[in-house]
Design brief:
Blueprint: H1 3-7, H2 12-20, E1 35-39, E2 42-45, E3 50-53, H3 56-59, H4 68-80, H5 91-103, E4 108-114, H6 117-132, E5 137-140, H7 149-154, E6 170-173, H8 193-205, E7 212-215, H9 231-241, E8 245-249, E9 274-277, E10 288-293, H10 294-297, H11 312-327, H12 330-351, E11 355-361, E12 364-369, H13 380-392, E13 395-396, E14 398-400, E15 406-409, H14 417-436
Parallel strand pairs: 3-13, 5-6, 5-7, 7-8, 8-9
Antiparallel strand pairs: 1-2, 2-3, 4-10, 9-10, 11-12, 12-15, 14-15
Bound molecules: pyridoxal-5'-phosphate.
Pyridoxal-5'-phosphate binds next to helix 6.
């Protein structure tokens, strides 16, 4: 075996992945990582390398890999009752629905459980259409909603869209993307032009009356785009004027991720009619939730069913995750450790001109990389290089953005400042190595 091969032995798992999975199931890194084990903030690959996981499988491992409390709840439930389907009531499902009523803002009371964020968003879209009797939905450019025909049609990204929109009725509003303002304006002098434009969007591209406005509080896959203060207040006001409900897609932003609040949208003064979520609620156990007001839920006629929706094992995991976040006060931790992370990222921006923007809330922080701070030309290659360099330093981070030039970090909610120090120092050394290359 040559020296190079000895240093980077071929992973049998990666070889089979390449041979037997759809090529579209893309992986990060030139030489993909095959993970075999996780514990707390760390994961190990099949070459026995240990990494600090700062992405959590896209903000999904929220309270640590193999969290003992969540694992115990899952094991207990799987040994007791593994499956019911929605045709039978089960205690973890009823308890989680009650808990969601208690922690979601305002009068959101009724839950429908599914398997993924995609299904959660689909359910919300259907519920809004059924509740209003209308079919047009305002969504955002740069948004991501999932893989079904409905959610593919809703999303605002060519990157993830293998087919043209299959479901009519979605109209795409300008994103509240201040770093690349679609109107070339600056907040607050802009007067929230992006929100105001929704008025013209509705009157020019719809019947004038809509079913809903659906938006992520922070555009996640879009590159952690944080709307400015006042954005949602204005956008939702316009949507309601035209008969629309407000759906907050909290697939990435919920469960304390943004600091202090359970849901990202609580940082704005608006009340959603429907909240969807998935990812971090199960800490890796698959589930999706759609929580609506009674008024909306009661207008979902006839029968509906989900084989795995409300699965007692997923429900037990979710209850354990929520309890862990409460017991450990992780919403506060997300704010405190998130602020510390932000300081570290801001300091990197001072040092490296390739960093055009630092943005996010709580433990949802990203960097937009550019070739030139004046022209803001996206630098996707720099993001790829940063991923390779940080991987060499045994730290995993994510990427995103329409131009693939945004670095995304999603440290677990129970991360500490020591983990942040490790991440920042790996990024610092990586940027330095990139400059030297
Ligand atoms: C905001 C948002 N909505 C919906 C989805 C779809 O979720 P899933 O991949 O679980 O179907 C995602 C996935 O990344 C997401 O980020």
């Amino acid at each position: 075996m040559s020296t190079v091969e000895a240093k980077t032995p071929q992973s049998e798992t990666v070889r089979k992945h390449k041979e037997f999975l759809f090529p579209a199931v893309a992986t990060y890194y030139q030489e993909p990582v095959a993970l075999v084990r996780g514990e707390g903030m760390h994961v190990w690959d099949d070459q026995d390398n240990k990494y600090l996981d700062c992405f959590g499988g896209v903000l999904t491992v929220s309270v640590g890999h193999a969290n003992p409390k969540v694992t115990a709840a899952v094991v207990k439930q799987i040994q007791t009752l593994q499956h019911t389907s929605t045709l039978y009531a089960n205690k973890p499902q009823s308890d989680l629905a009650e808990k969601l009523y208690q922690i979601t803002p305002g009068p959101l009371k009724k839950s429908f459980f599914t398997n993924s964020g995609t299904e959660a968003d689909d359910t919300a879209v259907h519920a809004a259409k059924l509740a209003t009797g209308r079919h047009e939905i305002v969504v955002l450019r740069h948004s991501y909603s999932g893989r079904s025909a409905t959610s593919l049609s809703a999303m605002g990204h060519s990157t993830w869209r293998p087919l043209p929109a299959q479901v009519p009725g979605f109209v795409h509003a300008r994103a509240p993307y201040c770093y690349r303002c679609p109107f070339k304006l600056t907040y607050p002098e802009c007067g929230l032009a992006c929100a105001n434009d929704i008025e013209e969007l509705i009157s020019t591209t719809t019947t004038g009356e809509i079913a809903a406005f659906m938006a992520e509080p922070i555009l996640g896959v879009g590159g952690f785009i944080v709307p400015p203060p006042g954005y949602f207040e204005r956008a939702v006001e316009i949507a309601r004027k035209h008969g629309g409900l407000f759906i907050a897609d909290e697939v990435q932003t919920a469960w304390g991720r943004t600091g202090d609040k359970w849901f990202g949208i609580e940082h704005w003064d608006v009340q959603p009619d429907i909240i969807t979520s998935a990812k971090g609620l199960g800490n890796g156990v698959p589930l999706g939730i759609t929580v609506a007001t009674e008024e909306v839920a009661n207008k979902y006629p006839g029968l509906t069913f989900s084989t795995f929706g409300g699965n007692p094992v997923s429900m037990a995991a979710a209850l354990a995750v929520i309890k862990f976040i409460e017991d450990e006060d992780l919403k506060t931790n997300a704010r405190e450790v998130g602020n510390y992370l932000r300081q570290g990222l801001d300091a990197l921006k001072e040092k490296y001109p390739v960093i055009g923007d630092v943005r996010g809330m709580g433990l949802m922080q990203g960097l937009e990389l550019v070739k030139d701070r004046e022209t803001k030309e996206p630098a996707p290659q720099a993001v790829n290089m940063l991923l390779e360099e940080t991987k060499r330093r045994r730290v995993l981070i994510g990427k995103g953005g329409l131009y693939a030039n945004v670095v995304r970090t999603g440290l677990m909610l129970n991360s500490t400042k020591d983990h942040v120090d490790e991440l920042i120092s790996a990024m610092d050394a990586s940027f330095t190595a990139m400059n030297a290359a």
